[in-house]
UniProtKB/TrEMBL annotation:
Pfam families per record: ABC_tran
Chief location category: membrane
UniProt entry keywords in alphabetical sequence: ATP-binding, Cell cycle, Cell division, Cell membrane, Membrane, Nucleotide-binding
Gene3D superfamilies in UniProt: P-loop containing nucleotide triphosphate hydrolases (3.40.50.300)
Protein name: Cell division ATP-binding protein FtsE
Family: Belongs to the ABC transporter superfamily.
Length: 236
């Protein structure tokens, strides 16, 4: 459903992302990890079409989004739900209203709002808090709200950039359980995090980036991995 093909992106002299190739199947849960400055956020922003790559292709469901015109960008974004480290909730609006903003942006007819907001609030366990304001909630609840807002437009994929970065371990753990549940219900998830404890616990595919390059991909198709071994054996 998503494919990056030899994607590179520089900022001045800094090669933030260099020759990155990977493919994510429908329903997969993929971590993108690496040290601070490795290029994780750049990968996320490239998929969001916030950045245009210098070279390479980014294909979502058969469409190369690097070729999309500016006026097509909103349509691309509507296929993608995003969750950030700092939640990005509007403080002067209730949780319900925060989620409704996403529906308004996606031009979903207003008569569908109530049912759809109820559905995602229930999914993230915040049904009782819909009329609360962000200041009345804890960090974990704000991240649940952000996830509900990402899900309400029914995107093909959820991108999360360090979603547990502002949470304590226990809260982070319960947020990860929630991401896991949403993935098991079929949603594709791509999560950038440097949080090793979480990655080890979740046992999902891990793509590791170092200085903009992929140094490890635990989920890469294995078919061609066996072959060279045989060839080596035969040569001996
Ligand atoms: N908008 C930008 N302008 C200039 N340099 C950037 C920009 N975004 C990222 N970089 C640089 O690209 C590299 C990768 O950054 P980033 O993708 O944010 O890494 P990570 O998310 O893994 O910490 C870093 O060296 C960073 O300073
Ligand atoms: Mg980052």
């Amino acid at each position: 459903m998503l494919k990056l093909e030899k994607v590179s992106k520089s900022f001045g002299d800094v090669k933030a992302v260099e020759d990155i190739t990977f493919e994510v199947e429908n329903g997969e849960f993929v971590f993108i990890t690496g040290a601070s400055g490795a290029g994780k956020t750049t990968v996320i922003k490239l998929i969001l079409r916030e950045y245009l790559p210098d070279t390479g292709q980014i294909i979502i469901d058969g469409e190369d989004i690097t070729k999309a015109k500016d006026k097509e960008i909103p349509k691309i974004r509507q296929q993608i739900g995003v969750v950030f480290q700092d939640f990005k909730v509007l403080s002067e609006r209730t949780l319900r209203e925060n989620i409704e903003v996403a529906l308004a942006v996606a031009k979903v007819p207003q008569n569908e709002w109530k049912e759809r907001v109820n559905h995602v609030l229930k999914l993230v366990g915040l049904m009782e808090r819909g009329n609360f304001f962000p200041s009345q909630l804890a960090g974990g609840e704000l991240q649940r709200t952000a996830l509900a807002r990402a899900l309400v437009i029914n995107p093909k994929v959820i991108l999360a950039d360090e979603p547990t970065g502002n949470l304590d371990w226990e809260t982070a753990d319960s947020i990860m359980d929630l991401f896991d549940k949403i993935n098991k219900e079929g949603k594709t998830i791509i999560m950038a995090t440097h949080h090793k404890g979480i990655i080890d616990k979740m046992k999902k595919r891990v793509i590791e980036i170092e200085k903009g390059k992929i140094v490890k991909d635990s989920g890469k198709k294995e078919s061609h991995k066996e072959k060279p071994k045989e060839e080596v054996a035969e040569e001996k």
